[in-house]
Every structure is written in C-alpha cells, then in structure tokens.
Design brief:
The complex is a heterotrimer of chains A (289), B (191) and C (824).
Chain A: E1 5-7, H1 12-22, E2 26-29, H2 35-40, E3 48-51, E4 61-63, E5 69-71, H3 77-81, H4 90-96, H5 102-107, H6 110-116, H7 123-129, E6 133-138, E7 141-146, H8 147-150, E8 164-170, E9 178-184, E10 194-202, E11 208-216, E12 223-224, H9 226-231, H10 242-253, H11 262-285
Parallel strand pairs in A: 1-3, 2-3
Antiparallel strand pairs in A: 4-5, 5-8, 6-7, 6-8, 9-10, 10-11, 11-12
Helix pairs in contact in A: 10-11
Chain B: E1 2-8, E2 11-17, H1 23-30, E3 49-52, E4 55-58, E5 71-73, H2 100-103, H3 113-121, H4 130-143, H5 149-155, H6 167-180
Parallel strand pairs in B: 1-5
Antiparallel strand pairs in B: 1-2, 3-4, 3-5
Chain C: H1 26-30, E1 46-52, E2 58-63, H2 65-68, E3 73-78, E4 92-93, E5 96-97, E6 108-109, E7 115-121, H3 124-131, E8 135-140, H4 147-151, E9 171-179, H5 182-187, E10 191-198, E11 202-203, E12 211-217, E13 222-227, H6 232-242, E14 250-253, H7 269-281, E15 285-288, H8 291-297, E16 300-301, E17 303-312, E18 318-328, H9 336-347, E19 355-363, H10 378-396, H11 400-407, E20 416-417, E21 423-424, H12 429-440, H13 442-447, E22 453-463, E23 475-482, E24 488-492, H14 501-513, E25 520-522, H15 541-568, E26 575-578, E27 581-584, E28 592-593, H16 594-603, E29 617-623, E30 641-652, E31 659-669, H17 676-695, E32 728-731, H18 754-766, E33 768-770, H19 777-790, E34 795-797
Parallel strand pairs in C: 1-15, 13-14, 18-19, 24-25, 31-32, 33-34
Antiparallel strand pairs in C: 1-7, 2-6, 2-8, 3-7, 4-5, 9-19, 10-17, 11-16, 12-13, 12-15, 17-18, 20-21, 22-30, 23-24, 23-29, 26-27, 27-28, 30-31
Helix pairs in contact in C: 9-10, 10-18, 14-15, 17-18
The chains are: A alpha+beta (289), B alpha+beta (191), C alpha+beta (824).
Chain lengths: 289, 191, 824
C-alpha cells in the first residue's frame, strides 16, 4: 500500500465534509473487504481514508411506512443475512448470507460491495432486479437514483468524488409478488461467473403485470432484458414456456454473435440455465397467490 | 503514524503504527503473537482468521486502525497455556515427588474441545491453516451447535487447506461439536 | 502431551508401529506456538523485496540508481554486478550441471515473475516503495506459452548461450525408450487406439509462503539460512556451491515448514539474494514471497501433451505402448525433465507392457518454472493410459474392469521384473482393483445406467522414493542419542513438513528401544547437527528415513543391552527392552531403568569395562538399491512400489456442467503401515491434489504470457464444500520385501489415478471423452451442447469442437524433432 491518512468522522456530516475538502484522493472505508484488496495491490492509491463503519446514520435496516426497506450501507452482510423480512424482501437476507464467506461477511458491507460494483458481485444484480434506489449525499445535497443509473455500464458506479452512499431502498413489499436469485461459480464460495435475478409483479388473476430480469457477470454492470420482460406482460406466471423464454433472455443480454469465445459461450448457456431456475421459482410463486 | 490500542486475548496492546498496518501484522509484530498466519494477504486462504468482537474476520484484510478499541481473540486464546509446550520429564524414580510444571504455572493445559478433536482426528498435517480453521470453527459451532457435515464444510469454505483434503477437519469439527454439546463422542474406528 | 499413550498396560509393552498414535507435532501447531519462516524475528533484521518482471519475454535494461537513496533503504542489487562473482546453477543433467539459473535476469527476462532487482530496507513498506523507483526498459520478444510454439523451427531461443547435453533450440532434454519391438506389435494387433491427451500446470500452493531469513555472522564467517524448504542439505550444498563458500561455514535450518508438495525441494533465487544481502550488510535479511509471486515462480507441475498409441489383442491384452511426449517445463527447470523420465517409467505400471516406443521432448516456454509436484509425472501418463484402456474396452465390447484385471501384474506373480526393468517386489494391485470395483458397485451401476451418471476407475502404482537419474544415491540418515536422563533425541537428515516424522520415527524408536514414546523428540532440521541425507519428497520418508531410523535404533539397542548385561551380570541374549527399562526376560519387574543406564554411560564411564565406548549414540543410513536409467530407457528406479486403485461414481449437471462426485473409493497398497491415521491423511491430501488437477486447477495465461489467475481468488484450489465425503478408503497391504519394515510410500498414491478416474467416469456418464485437463464445468457444458448439436457418438473434447485448432487424428500428429543418438 501507499501511505494515507486515516480519518474517523464522528457523524455523517463530518464524513461528507471530509470528502468535500479531500477531493478525489479521499476514499470511503466501510468494511474494507473490497477496498483493501485494491490498496494492497497498489491499484488504488488514496491519500486519505474516511472510516464510516460505525456511523449510526449508516447502520441498520428500517421499514418505512409504505413497506419499503431502507438499508444502511454500512450494514454488514452477516447482519443482513440474519434479518427476517416479509415476502420477496426476504431474498435480501438469502443473497447476503450466500456470498463471499463467513469471515468476509462479518465485516464486509452491502454499501462497500455495491460501490465497488465488481461485475461478478451478487448484490448489484439483486438490487437491480428489485428496482432498488440509491440515495447519495454530499455537502451539496442529496439525490436518489435508480439502480440502472447507479451502476455504470462502463464499470463502477456514478457516485461523484464528494458523494457518499447513505441509503439503499428496497421498494415496498406489495410492489413485487416474488423475486428469485440464482448464481453459479465453479466453487461453492467464489464470485459468480454469471448471476441472474427476476422480480415479478402479478395481478389478481396470476398474470404478469410487470417483470424485471437482471443478469450479472456478463458485462461491466447488471444487464436488464427489457424486451423479453415486455413480451411477458399479461402472460400467466404458472403457464410459461420457460425453456423458450430463458433462451430468449440469453440472446437478448448476450447476443450469440458476440459470444465468440468459450467464456462468452459458456456465459450465454449459464444465463439460460439460471434464467430457467429463476422462472421456475417465480412460477411457483403464482401458486401462493 | 498513529497511536492505537486494542485488546488481544484479554490484554491491552498499544502501538504507534503506520496507518497502512494490517490487523494481522499488528497482532504478529506489535502483539508478538505469531499463531495467526499470513498465507496470501488476499482474504482468500483464511489462515489469518481471528475473532473480532465476537465474529471471525480475515485479519489480513482489515486495517489495524479499523480494530481500534476492539476485542480480538487469536488461536492463542483457545487454551490457557500460552507458552511453548513444556514436556514434563518423567524421571522414573522421582515422578511422584516433584512437580516442576507447577512452579512454572503452566500445568494447566486444557485444550479447547476443537484442539483436542483436531489432535484425535489428525485434522492437521503441516499446521499452517490450523489456527484459522480453529477460529472459524469455534465461532461457527458456538452459533450452530448441531451442524451437519455439509454445514461444517460450508462454514470452512473460506479457509483453504492443501494437506488434509478437509476430511479429517470435518471429522474433528463434528467430534468437537458433540463434546461442546455435552455428549461423549464415539470411539474412532482406527487402531 | 501427557498421557496420550494411555492404553499401555504396565506389563507387556505395546508395540506402537501399526497403531494410530496421535501426533507429537500437534500441540505446538494447535496452540500457535510453532514458528514458521515468517514468524522468525532477529535483532537488526531487515526486509528485502524483489522486483519481478511483469513481461514474459523481453530484453531489459535496469537502472536501480534511484532506489538507493529512498528512505530506509540499505542496499540495492541487480544481476549485472553478480556476473562472474556468483556461480550459475541448474538442473543436473545426467552428470552435467547446466548453469541456466542465476539470482537475477541479466539482459533478458524469460518468464513473468523472473527476478530483476532487489532492495533491502528497514520496513516492508519502504522496500516496496523503493522497488517502484527502479527503472526497467523492456524490449518485448515473441512470447511462447505452449510447448508446440516453442518447438517451431522459427521459434526464438529462450535460454540463449546454454548448451544442453541432449537438447537443441528450446528443447532442453530428451527422453527415449525402446523396449521390445513395437512395430511388430502394431502389425499383429487386433486393435490400435491412438489419442492425443494434454494435461495442465498445477501449483503446490502450500499455504506457508516460500521464504527465508539469511544471517551472515561476520565474526565467525558463517552463513545461516533459515528457509521454508523440503531439503536442508540440498539447499546448503547448492548455496555453498553458488557462493563458493566452504560447506562447513554454511548452515541451513528449517523452521516449521508449512508443506511443499515438491514446490520447495530446490534452491530458489530469493534464497541466494537474501544470503548475498546478509553477507554485504552483516544483518539478518527477511525475504518472504507474496502469494502471486509464489504462483509465478514457485515451481509448478509440468504440463504435457502425449500422443499415445496402444496396441491390443481382442481379448483386451495390451501388447504395445507408443508415445511422443512434449512437456512444457516453463522457462527454466530444476526438476522438470526428471518428471518425464521417472513418471513415464513408473507410470507404465501396473501393466508389464512388452513393446515400448517412447520419445519425449522437454521444452522451455515463457511460463512459470516447472518442478516437482505430488505425483511427479505419474498422474499425467495415467490420465492418458487409463483412458485409452477404457476406450479399447469399449471398442472391443469388454468390461474395462476385466481388461484391467487381465493386464495388471498380480500379487502371486511378485517378485517380478517387467520388460522395462522395474523390479516389483510385492503388490496387491490386482486385489485393490477388484475391491475398488466392488465398493463403487461397478457392475450394478453399469447395468442400470442413468442419464448423465457414470462410473470410472483407474489403477496406478507409485515409486517409494525415486532415484534422481543424475544422482548415484538415494540416501537418508538418522542419528539417535540416548540423553543422560533416558530421553531420546532423533537427528534426521530430512525435513518434516506435515508428514508426522516426529511421530512415526518416535513409534519406531519406542518399539525398538523400549523407551516411552513421550520421551522421544525429533530435533529441528539443522545441517549443523543432522546427518547428511537428501530430504523429504518422492514419498520416501516412511521407507527410507524409517529404515535408517530402525537401523540406528537397533545399533543403539545393542550398545544399551551390552552395558546392561555388564551391570546386571546377565547374558545379553537374555535381556529385553521395554517400559523404559532393560530387564532379564521373564523378570519384568527387575532390571535397569534406561535413565540410570544412560547416566551411567556418561557419568560413570570409569566403571565401564575396557572396550566399552562411553555415551549412547548411533548413526545409520539407508540407501535404496536402484538403477540409473539405461540408454534404452530401461531401469528400476524404485526400491518398492505402492499401489492405488480408485473408482468414482459421478453425476454431470447438464445445466451448468458441474461434476458432482456421488461416491469415491480409494484402495491402496501401502505395505506395512506405521501409523494408519497419518497414512489415511496422506491419501486424503493426495486425493485433493488429484481432484484439483482433474476439475479446476490450471495456469491460465493470456497471449502476452501474463498469468491471469495468480491468486487464490481465481486459482481453483478446492474448497471444503466442493470435496466429496471420503467414506470408502481401504488398505490391502502387500508388505515390501525390500524395505525391512515392509512399509511403502504413501504421499503421492492418492493423486495418480484421480484425473483418469474422473475422465473415465465422465465418459461413461455422457459419452464425452475429455482429452485435456482440467475438466471444468464450462468445458463440460459446451461439450454437451456440441455433442447434442452434432449427435456424434464418442465425442471428444476438445478434439471434436468446431474451433479446435490442434491435430484431430494421428495422421496430423507432429513427430519428434531429429533422431536422438544413444548417449552412452
């Protein structure tokens, strides 16, 4: 690592002030599980670290009156994995408890993970499929942006140098009928080669009012499959031609003409396989309606 | 450089450290406890796992400053004897008369059930990954006192071993879990 | 530990050899008090770091001047200043020392990671900062990653200015076997199977990093090198030779060594560099490698391409084996070529094939140096040979189990000599084969074939210590000392690094001398006080070191009994040892305590009769009776042979390509086992290495020669949740007739058959024959899809994939370059 100063702001405002005065050489340190790897490799050389993992304003998950969940970005994956959340929101705990490994989850934070936005991470895909929103704050004010605007298609995020992520908000539980997340990596605990999530909203008749798909690991940010999703509107969730839809989704997010090497061809196949698993899970959600 | 204090195995350890110092290097070079090992510095192999405020972390991927004021437990905390193992010389004629180990205040060698189980099940060969395995398993078994073998395997999947192939480690974890639940584990089948 | 051997009755001393005594080593390792190389701290110790090449093949110009003035820096070094001062070293090529190794690259780098310069500073951070100030200009040269490109006629020379005895161009050694008459066997065959197989590079990835602390004492002129090594004497003699120092002024001490698997069984540039720094500065120098550097330079398994042809009769009998091996040994190699010689010879077992025609070319490429790794060439040939056996069985309509049973040597036939000259003293491999088949439920599963499920098997044999073709020795040694209080110290020539030497040697000593197990200590490995021997590798400890230990213990017992006979006024023939005493047979409660006898022989020497030598020490060596390789490739390289028969039941997921191992059986012949639990652990560890080689581990290079997976994040070392439960492990001992205690080596038996077992099981499950390693899920899934698209039976991966650029059939196979002269 190259040398840096270490700041321990007492409040969120102090943290934002440190970012504002520090400029681009100042970085936020939460759990450090992603950032420290980059520092040790000397790929990242910040002049100053601002430690936020104990800031009360950034910790914990609170349910809002409309059933949305406001997640403090400094909340560890381990804490998230132990939450009991209603309906589809319970998938947050499932995804959080199944990534990295025990020791990394105990100190790694959801905020750190999404700000690192490695294409192979799980949370960006999950949050994109759930249409989560991201609240960014600086001394200049606050703004709330959608997942598609937060994750940068060129890689990384669109956070400004002086901004800090202060909340990740899951939509109200009533907004989504079911959400399923699947991933595959060669070993049990390593970053996924491909991950895939689907979130469906059903009407009273069990037909698809809206559905969102997000595929991770195949591009620098999660890829939505809007055309495949749009084509499913109005269809009954329990009677889908899953194989056909999965293939269509794969062709949309990873067009065959771009899958020229073994790695891309395999990813395209995995999208089909994982999309099938997700669709099977979602189709069973219709049974509980 | 920054002054920094934390508790390691119940003792306060203070140092004046480079901000870049990692927790593992603070434990090893300031705390003088070398049982926590560095196998990769990439948060993958798990040889550096320690208990920080009740949960295991990979100490090679935590800054010492992040652990300021924390309670750290390392492998050396698992048994009361922290000194190098002292073997009692069994002088035939005088074995029952003198008790030199009492003088050295190190006759208490109660090992943690995991350490005993590792010994009985041959769950360590070169021993380099062992401290990390012990710390992760201790934390895991305290939270999951009655796991399946597969759950144990998942719990240690953040720790690499190249010598044992993990089989005996899982055997030892299951045996230790039984002991920690107050049961008497079955005799091993081997001679 | 107190009281561990608590089942001993007070009357009859229980024999410990053959029992699973819990290990003496464990307490220090379990409590974190054992000291590995990075745990050593010395007053005044400084930290060295090495600047390594990020390029795979380039001419370089190095300017270290800016580094010298950086904060905390004490010294900087690069290659130019060592030329003519430090002796180059290298592989021992059939008596000729090839000087192709040097502490630093000089005007050219040959592989990513090669040493370019080094600095010493007060702290590691300062050393790393200083490395960044060193300026290197690179002029890229064409990069050759695979061996075939290095063999091309226009391939640039990697090692320039080195004359290899049998090499030309980038070929640095050749291999040749001519036994019997293969051409006639081919003409007379009912079936010939020809298939090209390739295998992967693999890292030892021992978790304890390679590293050393060098300490030169300018008062005594002595150099002490602490190093995480598998062989202290090999290292001492190499360092002394390179630095042209007297060997009695160089001391190598091994701290606790956290495994090696063959990757720590040679001298490395970082050890030389640390020594030179220490000699310049007069201070201890710490130099421990990073994990990424260990992947890049810490020696890896050599990958091979084998063009194999086997001839069969229609009853399944193997009549001939022909092979052209191209081995990729990386940019330089200390042990690489031996892998082809030894691995092929021993890997032909357990089939006594009468007609052999084998050529090998061992090739340099711009990749990580190849070296010794668990299995040492046997897994690579078994991968090919045992799959061809299945292919032949399928073609002949025979059960692969029956074909193996027909061809393998059997217990009843031993001792025997095979056509290539192996002297197999004993084996139970035929019985192991049948047991493995029964335990995996071979016939039942094959009779009820389920989609995407299958069974596979493989058998192999293994050397127990193997004679390096260039040494004329294979020795280890033990010195025993009965201390003046009746405890025993064992001084060993070899380095224990996970195999439990302190325990099993203690078991031998306890049984022979009758001294309590808890009274026996193994001294730390230190060339200053250990007897000379070769080190720990090649599964040699139990048999070679164990025999030396037994002999030393017997010599010591003779002395003990002679003194006791004098003191007790008894006939030595009437005396027994046991329970820490020497006593007259039948009078268990009488006699002399060993502690008193030992004290007597040191402090009352004037009471010893004339002719009795004071103090109680004994030294013994054991050297295995083995051959040098003959010009036709023949020879017996091992004193005794262990056996392995493995079988697997697998399920292939046709959605992800993942291979799930539903059941795995290992049946081994390890002879008389000294400590069953330790041997079981060795087999399980060997299996891990085999599964890693089969399913995921590999060195992945991009076109520039950069290793893209030099990190545990990407390198596919198996994790616990991905390993099958090993509930079916069996020993069928065929005691060695050549090793006095009957034991055989265990360390590598678990590895050899594994890739072939998986290959055969996957072929049975899916009809897809994998001819390259590793068998990763992406390869499996794409193969399944292509097989379905084409409808091709007997689909081969990668040969039958549309984008495959290699030779699809034997007609387009390359031929060995040039004709090799007989070299004797």
């Amino acid at each position: 690592m190259t040398p840096f100063t270490y700041q321990r702001p007492a409040t969120l405002n102090d943290a934002m002030a440190a970012l504002a005065t520090g400029g681009p050489g100042t970085k936020i340190l939460a759990g450090g599980q992603s950032l420290l790897l980059a520092l040790k490799e000397r790929q990242s050389r910040p002049a100053s670290l601002v430690a936020i993992k104990n800031l009360a304003e950034l910790l914990g998950v609170s349910q809002l009156p409309d059933g949305a969940q406001r997640i403090g970005p400094a909340t560890t994956y381990a804490t998230l994995s132990r939450l009991s959340l209603p309906g589809w929101q319970a998938q947050l705990a499932a995804v959080a408890g199944n990534l990295a490994d025990r020791s990394v989850r105990n100190i790694g934070t959801i905020g750190g993970g999404v700000c690192q936005a490695d294409p192979r991470y799980d949370m960006p895909t999950f949050l994109t499929s759930a249409a989560a929103t991201f609240t960014l704050a600086s001394t200049r004010g606050e703004r709330v942006i959608a997942a598609e605007a937060f994750f940068n298609p060129q890689g990384g995020t669109t956070i400004a140098a002086d901004e800090i992520l202060i909340a990740i908000t899951l939509p109200p539980v009533a907004q989504i009928s079911a959400l399923a997340f699947e991933k595959f990596g060669f070993r049990t605990f390593e970053a996924a080669i491909v991950n895939f999530a689907g979130a469906v909203t059903l009407d009273e008749a069990g037909q698809i009012a809206q559905i969102r798909f997000a595929a991770g690991g195949i591009a620098k940010s999660p890829v939505l499959a809007p055309h495949s999703a749009e084509a499913l509107r109005g269809q009954p969730i329990a009677a889908l031609n899953i194989d056909e839809i999965a293939t269509k989704i794969s062709h949309e997010v990873l067009p065959p003409e771009t899958a020229l090497d073994r790695r891309r061809q395999y990813q395209a196949e995995l999208v089909i396989s994982l999309a099938k698993r997700v669709l099977h899970k979602l189709s069973r959600a219709g049974e509980t309606q | 450089m920054t002054k920094l204090s934390m508790s390691i195995n119940g003792k306060t350890v203070t140092g004046d450290v480079d901000e870049r110092m990692l927790l593992i290097d603070f434990i090893r070079d300031v705390g003088f406890l070398t049982g926590t090992h560095a196998g990769c510095y990439e948060a993958r192999c798990g040889c550096c796992a320690v208990d920080m405020d009740g949960a295991t972390v990979k100490s090679c991927n935590v800054l010492a400053l992040q652990a300021e004021g924390s309670n750290i437990l390392t492998v050396e905390s698992l048994s009361q004897q922290r000194l190098a193992p002292i073997t009692h010389i069994t002088t035939q004629t005088l074995a029952s008369v003198y008790k030199p180990l009492d003088a050295m205040a190190s006759n208490k060698r109660d090992l943690h059930p995991l350490q005993t189980a590792f010994h009985e099940c041959h769950a360590l060969q070169c021993g380099f990954c062992t401290p990390g395995m012990l710390m992760v398993l201790k934390n895991f078994l305290e939270e999951n006192p009655n796991p399946t073998r597969m759950e144990v395997r998942e719990a240690i999947s953040g720790n690499l071993c190249r010598c044992t192939g993990y089989q005996h480690i899982v055997d030892a974890a299951m045996r230790a879990a039984a002991v920690m639940r107050g049961e008497t584990p079955a005799e091993r089948e081997h001679a | 530990m107190d009281g561990i051997v608590d089942k001993k009755s007070s009357n009859a001393p229980r024999k410990l050899v053959g029992t699973s005594v819990p290990r003496t080593e464990d307490l220090a390792l379990l409590t974190g008090t054992a000291r590995f190389i990075d745990d050593l701290r010395f007053p005044g110790m400084l930290y060295a770091k090495i600047l390594r090449s990020p390029r795979a093949h380039a001419r370089i110009k190095v300017d270290t001047s800016a580094a010298a003035g950086m904060p905390g820096v004490h010294a900087v070094m690069a290659g130019a200043e060592l030329v003519g001062k430090v002796k180059p070293w290298g592989d021992l090529m059939q008596d000729l020392l090839v000087g192709d190794h040097f502490p630093f690259a000089l005007d050219k780098v040959l592989f990513e990671g090669q040493e370019i310069a080094a600095v010493v500073a007060d702290t590691k951070f300062q050393a790393q900062d200083a490395l960044e100030a060193i300026v290197v200009e690179y002029q890229d040269l064409p990069v050759m990653i695979d061996a075939e490109s290095a063999l091309a006629d226009d391939a640039p020379l990697i090692q320039e200015g080195i004359n290899y005895e049998f090499g030309e161009g980038n070929i640095f050694d050749r291999y040749r076997v001519r036994i019997g008459d293969y051409d006639t066997a081919e003409a007379d065959a009912d079936l010939v199977i020809r298939q090209r197989f390739s295998s992967n590079r693999q890292a030892g990835a021992a978790l304890d990093p390679h590293g050393c602390v060098a300490s030169f004492d300018s008062f005594t002129g002595g150099l002490t090198l602490y190093s995480s090594t598998q062989s202290t004497f090999m290292l001492r003699d190499s360092i002394a030779d390179v630095l042209q120092m007297p060997r009695n002024k160089v001391r190598v001490v091994a701290p606790e060594v956290g495994a090696g698997f063959g990757s720590k069984v040679q001298m490395f540039p970082h050890e030389v560099i640390a020594c030179i720094f220490s000699m310049r500065l007069g201070r201890p120098i710490h130099l421990v490698l990073s994990r990424a550097d260990i992947f890049r330079v810490g020696t890896a398994r050599n990958s091979q391409i084998r063009h194999v042809e086997m001839t069969f009769k229609k009853d399944g009998r193997i009549t001939g084996y022909r092979d052209y091996v191209i081995q990729n040994s990386g940019a330089l190699s200390f042990w690489g070529n031996q892998v082809v010689h030894i691995g092929t010879n021993v890997g032909l077992l357990p089939y006594p094939i009468p007609n052999l025609h084998i050529d090998g070319e061992i090739v340099h490429t711009n990749t990580a140096p190849g070296g010794a790794l668990r299995g040492f060439g046997i897994p690579q040939i078994i991968w090919a040979k045992e799959q061809i056996v299945d292919m032949a069985a399928n073609a002949l309509g025979l059960d692969p189990l029956d074909v193996r049973a027909l061809n393998t040597i059997t217990r009843g036939e031993c001792p025997l000599v095979t056509p290539i000259g192996q002297r197999v003293d004993s084996t139970s491999i035929d019985e192991c084969l049948q047991r493995a088949a029964a335990e995996i439920r071979w016939k039942e599963i094959r009779a009820n074939k389920q989609p995407n499920e299958g069974v596979g098997m493989a058998i192999s044999m293994k050397y127990t210590s193997c004679r390096h073709p260039s040494f004329d020795t294979d020795l280890s040694a033990i010195r025993l000392r009965l201390e003046t209080d009746g405890t025993v110290t064992i001084f060993s020539s070899d380095v224990t690094h996970g195999q439990g030497h302190a325990t099993f040697l203690g078991q031998i000593v306890a049984d022979v001398l009758g001294v309590g197990f808890e009274k026996i200590t193994l001294a730390p490995a230190d060339t200053a006080n250990a007897p000379f021997g070769l080190g720990t590798y090649a599964s040699r400890a139990a048999a070679v070191l164990g025999t030396a230990c037994r002999t030393a213990a017997e010599r010591l017992r003779e002395k003990i009994v002679a003194i006791a006979a004098h003191v007790l006024e008894a006939d030595p023939q009437d005396l027994e040892t046991g329970n820490d005493r020497v006593y007259v047979r039948g009078m268990d409660d009488s006699g002399l305590y060993l502690e008193n006898l030992a004290s007597f022989s040191a402090y009352r020497t004037h009471q010893l009769p004339p002719g009795f030598e004071p103090t109680l020490e004994a030294v013994a060596t054991y050297d295995t009776p083995t051959d040098r390789e003959g010009p036709d490739g023949s020879g017996n390289f091992s004193v005794t042979y262990a056996g392995s028969a493995h079988a697997a039941h697998v399920r292939v997921c046709d959605q992800t390509g993942k291979i799930e191992i539903l059941d795995y059986v290992m049946v081994h012949d390890t002879g008389i086992v000294i400590n069953p639990l330790i041997v079981e652990g060795q087999h399980q560890g060997g299996f891990l290495m085999g599964i890693g080689m089969a399913l995921g581990e590999d060195y992945v290079y991009d076109a520039t020669g950069h290793m893209t997976n030099a990190s545990f994040a990407d390198y596919q070392a198996p994790q616990a949740a991905d390993m099958p439960e090993l509930t079916k492990m069996f020993e069928i001992p065929a005691p060695s007739l050549t090793i006095p205690g009957g034991q055989k080596g265990a360390g590598e038996s678990g590895t050899g058959p594994v890739p072939a077992v998986i290959g055969n099981a996957v072929a049975h499950a899916t009809g897809i024959r994998f001819t390259e390693l590793p068998i990763t899920p992406d390869r499996v899934l794409l193969a399944l899809r292509e097989r379905d698209r084409t409808g091709k039976q007997d689909f081969r991966y990668p040969d039958d994939m549309p984008d495959y650029a290699g030779p699809r059939d034997a007609e387009s196979w390359p031929k060995p370059k040039g004709e090799m002269e007989l070299f004797y």
